Structures are given as C-alpha cells and as structure tokens.
Amino acid sequence: MKIKEYFGSISQLEKKLSAWIDLPISLRVRSTGTRNITFLFESFSEEEIISFFKDTIQQPEHAIVGYRQDDIYGDILGKCDYQDVLYFEGIGDKVYAYADNLTLSLKNKLYEIEEFSKLYVRISKSFIVNILVVEKIYPSLNGKFIIELTDGQNLTVSRKYKKQFLEYLED
C-alpha cells in the first residue's frame, strides 16, 4: 500500500489516527529498508476493524477489503484498489480476489461483487473477471471462450455466461 496515495504523508496519517489515541492501537513505522506499518488491534470486533479501515482512514472509493494469508501473523486484514483486481473466484462458500501479487479472502458473495462495479463481468458460476485485464479472447470447444488476462492466466467463459459476456463487450 502506498501511504501517500491513500493517506498523504505520515503526519497526515497520524492526525487521522489522533481520534483513536486512547484506544489500544499501535502505529509502527520502520525507517530502515522496506517501510512497514503495523496496526495492532486488541479487543475489537472484526466489524470495528473493518469500519476503521473503511471509514476512519479515508480510502479510495470502492477499495476491496479482505484477509490475506501471512506466514508469520496468520490472516491479516488487507486491501487493494478495486481496479487492481484481476478476477474473483468462488470456491465453496469462500470468495477470493486475485490481484497481481495479492490474494484476499472476502466476506462478500459473488453476486455482490458482480454489482460492485461495471468493470466486473461474470464468466462462469465461479468466476468474475475485471474486463480491463482481458488481453485476448479465443474460441474453444463446446461453444466456450478462453480469455487470456494481462498476467498470462487463462480463464474459461462458460456457455451459460457466453451470451452475457458478448453483450457486455458490445456495450
């Protein structure tokens, strides 16, 4: 996350956090090498933490907020700009957002993601793709399409969603 892009300078971020001064939140900025900021929330519900990131610290409109896997800390609340998401995948009752170098586990359902932005189009029962990252479209067997994304991945447009996908491209 780029601090200046979302919050301005560190001092501006500290001012935004000043209302939370009496709460058990620590802000640590390492000044050597890679700069990391760590928020430590103690005794807060998940809803309160998400509210903090969505409302208190002003993020770009339509930021995607979910959990990312971290080897050291376990699941960590993370976010990315909705335009950076390549595609969403539903696996069982879980929904994942995939960006270039980030995977977030979301609380949303796929149908909610579909309504989130006009950039997203459903291509199968389990996948929604960001139309801006579709590089190439190839016909496939059985009336399906294969789409190639800007990162080289291939996804299949199912027959059920083929018509909807083509109509979306025409608009």
Automatic annotation (TrEMBL):
<dbReference type="GO" id="GO:0000156">
    <property type="term" value="F:phosphorelay response regulator activity"/>
</dbReference>
<dbReference type="Pfam" id="PF04397">
    <property type="entry name" value="LytTR"/>
</dbReference>
<dbReference type="InterPro" id="IPR046947">
    <property type="entry name" value="LytR-like"/>
</dbReference>
<protein>
    <submittedName>
        <fullName>LytTr DNA-binding domain protein</fullName>
    </submittedName>
</protein>
<dbReference type="GO" id="GO:0003677">
    <property type="term" value="F:DNA binding"/>
</dbReference>
<feature type="domain" description="HTH LytTR-type">
    <location>
        <begin position="81"/>
        <end position="171"/>
    </location>
</feature>
<dbReference type="InterPro" id="IPR007492">
    <property type="entry name" value="LytTR_DNA-bd_dom"/>
</dbReference>
<keyword id="KW-0238">DNA-binding</keyword>
